[in-house]
Amino acid sequence: MTRRPDIDDLLPLASLPTPAPAREPTAIARLTRGLRGLPAAPRWWGPGSGGLAGWLHQGPGGMTPPTVDRTPRFRALLHRVREGEPVLPPEARNHQYVVVRGMLGDEMPGYLLDNVQRLEGRGLSVREADVDTEGLLLSNVAVLREVLLDARHFGRSVVLVGHSKGGVECTAVLAMYPELRSVVRAVVALQAPYAGAALAHDLATTPEMRRLIDFAFPLLFHGVSRSVEELAYPQRMAFIRQHPYPTDIPTVALATSRLSRLSTLYPLQRYFQERYGQASDGLVMPLDAEIPGSGVVRLDDMDHSEAALRALPGLGRYHPGDVTEAMVALALEER
């Protein structure tokens, strides 16, 4: 018969220290563990986004509203801004400026800070839209719709200022809700991948690279990986065909590129140059940032971060506040 242990038998066990619970691996550790299984791959995986950049402007003549090159006027305004001269028209104070952040904007310290401070410093009313920068397009469009409904209720006119994915969402809300177009005085789209983003397309369509967003995006940024896929070319093609952007809203679009070792995005700029033989700002190719029917500013010496983040001295040629002030002044000249 087996003897049941009495209290004296259990005392030595009770005196042993309780082991500490196993520590959860960090996000980086979990990401590394998830990516260990990536197979060896050749230099490039498949066709990628080859031949897709600029698709919106490659259709039959007359099908796409033409853009207007506003680069010379922008440069003149930018020069005056840098000289400390006023460039905003008197009507600028009549509007509310709704700033919309782009992808991962919530994760980057100082993102769009200079842009907002410049507009506020000029005595303008600024509101930052409460979008989820790692969220889905339609969810953020719903947020912007409420902002515009609020402005309409109080009899205010709005200037939408969106950077990157934020610019895509600015155009989307007006394309989907035509009844709100009368609320908007102008749209400023800074480096928005309106027609699609080659990087997002490559990440979403290449199995070996897809794992990066499927694992890293929810894990590190609590985001929805499908929000990256929404910027791929097929998704943007389908959306634009169903919801074309109206041509009766004064709109200016900033389309940029750069290939410089001084840029923090140089590896990506070089990737696009070597793989596709095309210039980019590191994330978006210039033609994809040109919105049909808009005034377009084309710069070949600005990367994707310079319109929203202040560069280290000597590494960038533009100040985000200067760019935003000049672009807003340009947009308010449009009728």
Automatic annotation (TrEMBL):
Instruction: Give the domain of life.
Output: Bacteria
Kindly give the InterPro entries that the UniProt entry links to this protein.
Answer: AB_hydrolase_fold
User: What residue spans carry the region label Disordered?
Assistant: 1-21
Q: What is this protein called?
A: AB hydrolase-1 domain-containing protein
| UniProt organism field | Myxococcus stipitatus (strain DSM 14675 / JCM 12634 / Mx s8)
